[in-house]
Amino acid sequence: MGKKYPVQVKVNGKEKFAEVEPRLLLAHLLRDEFNLTGTHIGCDTSQCGACTVMLDGRAVKSCTVLALQADGAEITTVEGLGSKEELHPVQQGFWEKHGLQCGFCTPGVMMAAAGLLQENVNPTEEEIRDALDGVICRCTGYQFIVEAVQHAAELIREQQKQTSSLENVTAGGDE
């Protein structure tokens, strides 16, 4: 057993600490140390994207990041997107538009989609397909996934309109 080093990260809004070997991958830290098994490991070679998480606001494949590189970072896993009571728009889109089949790749696809929609709430189909290019789904032809992301984008835009209208009313604007 090699020397271990401290790592402190904020995962899904909670501070987490671990002592890790320098070779430990972020995917394994999340799964094995923090028991966040929604981050799937499909290939361990960065080809499949099943391990995609948000790292400081960017979608990354967690099998390509050493745990030590994430020290001090803010991480969101699929478990942190939403809750059973209040689904994230991406989760709602996948639910309503049947954007999954076996479900193995789904956490990675959702995180890649969330990364896209954080940057662009009105993506074209081509932009969605480009953003999801690094995540492999072996069960489907991606059409339902694309439709789920398009629906999630609609839900986000609706939420933004409602928030904007509410802010306008509370600020004394048009009622």
Automatic annotation (TrEMBL):
Protein's name in the database: Carbon monoxide dehydrogenase
Keywords: 2Fe-2S, Iron, Iron-sulfur, Metal-binding, Oxidoreductase
UniProt key word Amino-acid biosynthesis: no
Domain of life of the native organism: Bacteria
Recorded GO MF terms: 2 iron, 2 sulfur cluster binding; metal ion binding; oxidoreductase activity
InterPro entries: 2Fe-2S-bd (IPR002888), 2Fe-2S-bd_dom_sf (IPR036884), 2Fe-2S_ferredoxin-like_sf (IPR036010), 2Fe-2S_ferredoxin-type (IPR001041), Beta-grasp_dom_sf (IPR012675), Diverse_Oxidoreductases (IPR051452)
Pathway: Alkaloid degradation; nicotine degradation
Domain spans labelled 2Fe-2S ferredoxin-type: 5-81
Source organism of the structure: Neobacillus mesonae
Annotated TM spans: none
